[in-house]
Amino acid sequence: MAAHAASEGGSVPLPTAVSPASGLTEVELTWIEQRLEQWIRFGRVAGTRIVSRRTRVDAFRPGAVFAFVRWTSNDYGTVHSSIAVIAAAVPGAPFATHPYVRPGGDLLLRIDGWPKVQQVLAAIDAIEAAGVDPCDVAPDHWRHIGSQLAAGLPFRPYGDARHKAWLQRQALGL
After folding, report:
1. Rounded to 5, what percent of the chain is helix, strand, coil?
2. Which of 6, 10, 60, 167 lies most in the core, judged by the most C-beta atoms within 10 Å?
3. Do the beta carbons of residue 6 and residue 39 sit within 8 Å?
4. Does residue 4 sit within a domain?
């Protein structure tokens, strides 16, 4: 498993504690090689705070979309793996909680189990190969992938035509 770079553009150092009034959503990332690996697959990181040699906290602005991958193993193999695509909490709006994500966000997709996580990672790779930033993908598409995988069904690819339709819906305020 390799960690993927997440931040495009400059992220700024965060203070030792971010107040809830800041509106930022924090994600705690720990990396203990081959034991506990948590990383951001994509997302526009607003700031980073180093907690220890193995742990850091990335922060996201309200509404920012990011993918959070968790993988845990023991001496006998993988114990848990999951990926979540989350839109960071917007102050005053309802949100769901998620482990290691404070306060939480709009959970667009959550998949458990390494084979299905790999399918989501491949879908993200395909979106990037189509020239679209996964942060900008229609939220409905992440929900579509999650529901289709949960049902054991194939999901539609996300390409230029779907992305243009999403951008037009956004422009119309739909």
Report:
1. 25, 35, 35
2. 60
3. yes
4. no
pLDDT tens track for 73-97: 998 988 999 999 999 999 999 999 9
* pLDDT value at residue 22: 75
Which residue is it, tokens 């006998």?
76
Residue 16 is predicted with a pLDDT of: 55
Segments forming the whole domain that contains residue 30: 12-171
Whole-angstrom Cα distance, residue 132 to residue 113? 26
Domain assignment present for 2: no
Q: Is residue 157 part of a domain?
A: yes
Contacts for 143 with CB less than 8 Å, ≥ 6 apart: 108, 109
Residue whose C-alpha is closest to residue 83's, from 74, 72, 71, 95: 71
pLDDT at 21: 55
